[in-house]
Write a structure and sequence with these properties.
CATH superfamily of the largest domain in chain A: PurM-like C-terminal domain
Number of helices of chain A: 8
Radius of gyration of chain A: 20 Å
Oligomer: homodimer
Order of helices and strands of chain A: HEEEEHEHEEEHHEHEHEHEEE
Distance between the termini of chain A: 27 Å
CATH architecture of the largest domain in chain A: Alpha-Beta Complex
Strand order of the largest sheet of chain A: 9-11-8-12-10-13-14
Mean pLDDT of chain A: 95
Low-confidence stretches of chain A: none
C-alpha cells in the first residue's frame, strides 16, 4: 500500500483510503487477542460499536464518534443534535437500546456562550426525548485559532440481548434502506458552498432511529444479519464494507434507492453520487429474504413511508463480482459500485 | 452567577469557573433521574468516571476525556501516551481494573504521517503494556487551519467490585499524595514558553498507576474514601471539590507535599502555585486514618518512594473553614487554599 507522507482530507472520508490508513497504522499493530474483550466484538469487526458481554444473555454496546461538522448550525439541526442522534443511531443499528451517553465538548476561546447554550440544549433535549441518561463528560477550551468553534465527541452506552454484528450476511438477504438517503450530506454541502438560499429544500435528516427502527430490529433480530447508518461514505461505503471480506456480492437497483428529487437534482448538479453521500436519519440493513417484505411493511406502518428493498446479497456469478457491489443503473446498465471519497470534509 | 458572554480560557481550566459553567449549562438542566443509571453513578457526582452496575457485585466504570495538549510531543511523552495513561488513571482512581479502550483521533490535514505513527504507536504500546484491549474508535481529518495538529479522545472501560466514589470522606481520613506533584504542568509550561533548553530537568510524569496504586486501592478498598488524579487544577482543585459540598474541612501541610526542587523553583519563578498545577502520574487519596500509614508504607515498597501523608479531613473548628481547605504554610501560617485557574490552556 502506498501512502502520502501527510494526512490528507480523503484519509478521513469514510472510504477505502480511510480504512487503509486505519488498518496500516492501528489495527494491524494490535495483537489479535487485544482487538476485543472475551466473547465480545471490538476492532476485529469494523462495526458501529463495540460489544461487551455482561451476562449470559446481555451485552453492553459502546460507541464513540467525534463530530466536527461545519457549519455547526445547519438546516435540520446543529452539532449537538447531530452528536446525540448519531450516537443513538450507532447503538440502534447494533440492535441495542440506548441507555446512557457521555460527551466531551471542546470549544474555541471567544465562542459565544449563547450559541454554546443552544447546542447543549439541543443535546439535552435529544437525550431527554429518548430517556437516555447523561452520565459523564469532559469540557475543554482551546485558545482562539487552535480549533474552529466546537468539536463534540459522543459516547453511547446501550444494552441488547442480541447484538447485530455485520459479519453474517448471506445470499438471499434483502438490502433495505429505511428512508430517503443523502439528505444530511446534501444540506451540509449546500451550506458549505453558500448555496442554501438557492436550494431551499435541502435539510439534514438528523434524527434518532430508536422509535421506528429499533423495535423492528429487536422483533426480527435473528433475521437481521447486518445494519448500519450510512453516514460518511454513504450506502456505497457500507455495502462495500459488508462484502469486502466475504465471498458474496451485493446487487442493488439504483432506481429503487429512495431519494428526494431536490436532493438528487442538487447532487447531480454538483457531480456527486448520492450513494456516496451521508445520511443521518436513515439506515441500511441486510435482512433475511424470508421476512424482508414484512419488515419493510412494518417499517412503513411505523412512519418510514419510503422504506424499500433496493437489492440483495447474491452468490456472485462471476469471479470479478466476488466481494463487490453491483449497481444496476436506471437504464439497465451494470456498474461496479466503488466506495468513493467525496471531497467534503467536516460532514459529521 | 455572572458569566461573560463568550467562552474564555478559564472556563476550561479545571477550577471554579469551569464547574460553574458546567453546572449552569449542563448539570442543572438534566432531570435528576437522568443524571445516572439505576444504582450507578453519573453526573450526580463529579468524579473521574461513571459507574454502571452489571451484576450484584460488579460494576463497569467508564471514563471519557479529550486531550488537547500543546505541544503534542513533550519531555516525558506525547499526546497519545498521555491519552492512554490519563484514561487508565481515571479508571484506577475509581478503583477499577482497566480492561478496554476506545479513542477518537482528529487530525489536521497536512499533518506528517510519520508523527501520527509515533503518536499511535505510543498509544498502542501503553495499552499493550497493561493488557488493555482496543475495541473501537473514530478517525477524522479536519481541513488545514481548523484544528491545531491533533486532538485525541480516550474512553476507558474498567471493572470493579467496589467503585471509589468521592463522596465518602470523613474526619480522620488522611490525605495521601502518591508521588511528586506538578511535574506534567511544569514541563508543558516550560515547553509552551520555549524554556526547555534553560530548565532541562522538567519532564512530564505521564504514566499509568495501574501497577503501583491499583493493587493497594483494591486491597484497602473499604478504607479508601476518595481518590483522584490531580490533572487540571492540581491537588488544590481536587481537595476543594472533595470538601465543597460536605460539612468538613481538609487541612494540609505545604511542606509535606512531595515536589521536586527543579519543579518548585521553576514554578515559583513563574509565580504559579504547584498545588494548582497538573500531574499525570500522581494521585491524591483520602484514606481512613486506621490504615493510612500502612497504605503509604506499601506504596513506598511498590516503588512510590515519595508517597506521603500531607494532611487530613477534619471537623472544622470554625464556621469559615466548613467546606474549605486550610493550608499550613512552610512557616506555620494558615491560608485558605482556593482552587485556582492557572492561565495555561492545552495542558492535558
Amino acid at each position: 500500500m502506498s501512502m502520502s507522507k501527510y494526512i490528507m482530507l480523503h484519509h478521513g472520508a469514510g472510504a477505502r483510503e480511510m480504512w487503509n490508513i486505519i488498518e496500516a497504522l492501528i489495527i494491524s499493530k494490535v495483537p489479535t487477542k487485544l482487538r476485543k474483550l472475551p466473547r465480545g466484538a471490538g476492532i476485529d469487526v469494523l462495526d458501529d460499536g463495540a460489544v461487551i458481554p455482561i451476562s449470559d444473555n446481555e451485552y453492553l454496546v459502546l460507541s464513540v464518534d467525534s463530530y466536527t461538522v461545519n457549519p455547526i448550525f445547519f438546516p435540520g439541526g446543529n452539532i449537538g443534535h447531530l452528536a446525540v442522534n448519531g450516537t443513538i443511531n450507532d447503538l440502534v443499528v447494533m440492535g441495542a437500546e440506548p441507555k446512557a451517553f457521555m460527551d466531551t465538548i471542546i470549544v474555541e476561546e471567544g465562542f459565544p456562550l449563547s450559541d454554546l447554550e443552544i447546542i447543549i440544549n439541543s443535546m439535552l433535549k435529544a437525550l431527554k426525548n429518548e430517556g437516555i441518561a447523561l452520565i459523564g463528560g469532559d469540557f475543554k477550551v482551546m485558545p482562539k485559532g487552535s480549533i474552529d468553534k466546537v468539536v463534540i465527541t459522543g459516547v453511547g452506552i446501550g444494552i441488547t440481548d442480541k447484538p447485530i454484528i455485520d459479519k453474517d450476511i448471506k445470499p438471499g438477504d434483502k438490502i433495505i434502506v429505511t428512508s430517503p438517503i443523502a439528505e444530511h450530506g446534501a444540506a451540509i454541502l449546500a451550506a458549505q458552498l453558500g448555496l442554501l438560499d438557492e436550494v431551499k429544500n435541502l435539510r439534514s435528516d438528523s434524527r434518532p432511529l430508536s422509535r421506528t427502527l429499533l423495535p423492528l430490529i429487536k422483533k426480527y433480530k435473528k433475521y437481521v444479519h447486518a445494519a448500519r447508518d450510512p453516514t460518511r461514505g454513504g450506502i456505497a461505503a457500507v455495502l462495500n464494507e459488508w462484502v469486502r471480506s466475504s465471498n458474496f456480492s451485493i446487487t442493488i437497483h439504483r432506481d429503487k434507492v429512495p431519494i428526494r428529487e431536490d436532493v438528487k437534482a442538487f447532487l447531480e448538479a454538483m457531480g456527486i453520487d448520492p450513494l456516496s453521500m451521508a445520511s443521518e436519519g436513515s439506515a441500511v440493513l441486510a435482512v433475511d429474504g424470508v421476512v424482508a417484505e414484512e419488515f419493510v411493511k412494518e417499517l412503513r406502518s411505523r412512519g418510514e413511508d419510503y422504506a424499500t428493498i433496493i437489492g440483495e446479497v447474491t452468490k456472485p456469478d462471476s469471479e470479478i463480482l466476488r466481494g463487490r457491489v453491483l449497481a444496476i443503473t436506471e437504464i439497465g446498465g451494470k456498474i461496479i459500485l466503488e466506495p468513493k471519497s467525496v471531497n467534503l470534509p467536516r460532514i459529521c
